[in-house]
Amino acid sequence: MGIPIKLHITFLLILPVFALIFASNPAPYGFKNVVDLSTRYILSFATTILLFSSILLHEIGHSYFAKKYGVKIDSITLMLFGGVASMEEIPRNPAQEAKMAIAGPMVSFTIGTMCLVFDGVISGLQPSFSDGNIFHVIWLLGYINLGVGVFNLLPAFPMDGGRILRAWYATSMPYVEATQRAAYIGKMFAFMMGILGILSNAWLILIAFFIYIGASEEARTTAVNVILEKVPVQKVMSSDIVSVQPSMTIDEFSKLMFEKKHMGYPVIEGNNLKGIVTFTDVHTIPQQERANMLVSDVMTKDVITVPIDADASEALKLISTRNIGRVLVTDNNSIVGILSKTDLVRALQLLSE
């Protein structure tokens, strides 16, 4: 599907932990009763790999519908608590969001059901837990996938069930309010899960923490995007453009920054845009080397621009995804302004009032 699959470092760390958990638990949820030690750990590791493969398919289920509705998928990353599909933006259409959200659990339910049916047919409707064979792996994989499907359907935003809840709310109220309500319920679930974790399982505390943070962050991000998408870039950009020459020394550039108080400057030679140079590019250069180094030596040549008719939310997405401090605003290939993260924060503060 053209989607990069990435492995987070936490995924590599959790693999042996999961294998150890399966190896340490007795049947039917583990392989502790398998006498041969090497066989026990081979089966445990195989179950772990197949489990995360199932989670990958779960995320591909989400991604399939996302691409169908025109959403760009940057990547799918496997990490500590499963998989995350990195999408540019969730569709605002409630029906589309609901289909995207439910696709993942449906994949998990399908895998789980197929595994249990296959194991039942092979073993004569009596799952073989004691033998420690491949059919035990299939049964365990089916059981866990059903659990993953049910867990993801809990209305704890931003999990799949929470997104379905947000889509349902969005049919009768503004999108921001729907998000806030779903996020509030998600936080309540996280709070209850945290209490349950204190009483029983420490893993639940960690999961509750991630759900709470995820719900808070998504509610904030949605509110910000909805506010800024009504604001043209032209209204919040700075049209007082101070450009520099690529032949300027870093020493001269540092003095200019101190005088003009801007943190980033387009680099222009003649009428041609050569790059952009910022405080970040020069602040690590030792003082004694600045007289001999030029702006062209440290500037960023890959310049990110937005058209003047774009809305401010598009600029914010670029700044966030590229992890940069500012973008240049163009009109018919001419630079007409510069928009920084500070400009967007200031606009948000004023619009929120």
SSE diagram, text form:
Elements: E1 5-7, H1 9-24, H2 37-68, E2 73-79, E3 82-87, H3 94-122, H4 134-152, H5 160-170, H6 175-199, H7 202-228, H8 233-236, H9 250-260, E4 264-269, E5 272-278, H10 279-282, H11 295-298, E6 305-307, H12 312-322, E7 326-331, E8 334-340, H13 341-352
Parallel strand pairs: 1-2, 6-7
Antiparallel strand pairs: 2-3, 4-5, 7-8
Shape assignment: elongated
Series of secondary-structure elements, N-terminal to C-terminal: EHHEEHHHHHHHEEHHEHEEH
Give unreliable regions as ranges: none
How much is the radius of gyration in Å?
26 Å
Number of domains: 2
Proportion in β-strands: 5-15%
Q: What summary fits the major beta sheet?
A: 3 strands, mixed
Question: Which structural class should the secondary elements be placed in?
Answer: alpha/beta
Q: For this entry, what is the oligomeric state of its chains?
A: single chain
Helix fraction, binned, reads 55-70%
Count of DSSP E strands? 8
Mean pLDDT: 87
- The side-by-side strand order for the widest beta sheet comes to 1-2-3
The helix tally amounts to: 13
